[in-house]
Write a structure and sequence with these properties.
- The chain has 276 residues and is α/β, with parallel strands linked by helices.
- The chain has eight helices and eight strands, in the order αβαβαββαββαααββα.
- α3 links the parallel β2 and β3.
- α2 runs parallel beside α7.
């Protein structure tokens, strides 16, 4: 017997408006990011086949280390090379698409020349400072027009994780989310839904030192959790761009074999329109 969530029955598809220029910004090219890279390249190729202009920026200051293999999508031959540059070279060549690599930390200034593009910032980072920088980019969205900047955030622990999609940086930006009754026009920012993702990790706190063993245990991840997280996130982008998307948050647990999803119904979205 299948039980249907009542929020899903009242969910409205997300409307992006007209978008002839699409930019994907992959922030973090490690665990989740190395899996998302190929999906983003494929979407660039598909958008190009539809006559649209698509481009991707891959951003990460880190180099490939032996400890990254085989969980992340790198090989022994790439050890010592910058992660963003490796993935950009690999998938731009494979799919014949426009991908630029930045072996640096992400800065909002990188987006200034794309002011009239539809931008998807795909966050694959695991610290609060990096997520705070991404969150700042949503401040460019108007509180009364279709957002041009969307944040798709991926995060995970050892066997569980979540994918969050949003565009509204404040509660006020949600006031017109369902101005068009048949569609959802904007969604709460991942930081608005889960403000704790902007906090530093326990191992980053200066006043709470941890042993190397404790840090290793905290950061341990299964070999399949990144693939699962990226598959869910890629599905979000695929439905947004080439179909209909009626969800904005998915939580999963590999050990339990469970998933939980929030849908784009007015009652589910508008609960974040009031200060919490």
């Amino acid at each position: 017997m299948q039980f249907i969530n009542t929020d899903y029955l009242d969910a409205r598809p997300i409307w992006l408006g007209e978008c002839n220029q699409v930019l994907f910004v992959l922030v973090g090219c490690g665990g989740n990011g190395s899996y998302m890279a190929e999906a983003i390249a494929r979407f660039c190729r598909l958008l190009g086949q539809q006559g649209k202009r698509a481009q991707a920026l891959f951003i990460d200051p880190q180099t490939v280390e032996i400890k990254n293999i085989p969980r992340q999508r790198f090989s022994d031959a790439e050890i010592g090379l910058n992660k963003a540059q490796v993935l950009a070279a690999r998938y731009s060549l494979l799919w014949g698409v426009d991908i630029h690599a930045f072996p640096t930390l992400f800065e909002p200034d990188l987006l200034y020349s794309y002011y009239n593009w539809l931008i998807f910032i795909v966050g694959c980072v695991d610290d609060g400072l990096a997520r705070s920088t991404i969150a700042q980019c949503l401040n460019q969205n108007s509180s009364s027009q279709l957002p041009k900047r969307w944040w798709l955030d991926l995060g995970n622990h050892r066997e569980s994780g979540q994918v969050l999609l949003g565009s509204a940086p404040t509660e006020n930006h949600l006031s017109w989310a369902f101005q068009t009754p048949s569609h959802c026009l904007t969604l709460p920012s991942p930081a608005l839904v889960h403000p704790e993702i902007l906090l530093p990790r326990p191992d980053q706190l200066a006043n709470a030192p941890m042993s190397c063993a404790e840090i290793a245990m905290l950061n341990a991840q299964s070999q399949t959790v990144n693939g699962m997280c990226a598959a869910i996130a890629a599905n979000y982008l695929n439905r947004l761009l080439f179909g209909q998307l009626k969800k904005w948050a998915t939580y999963f647990d590999l050990e339990a074999g469970s998933t939980q999803t929030r849908y784009t119904s007015p009652q589910a979205v508008m609960q974040f329109s009031e200060p919490r």
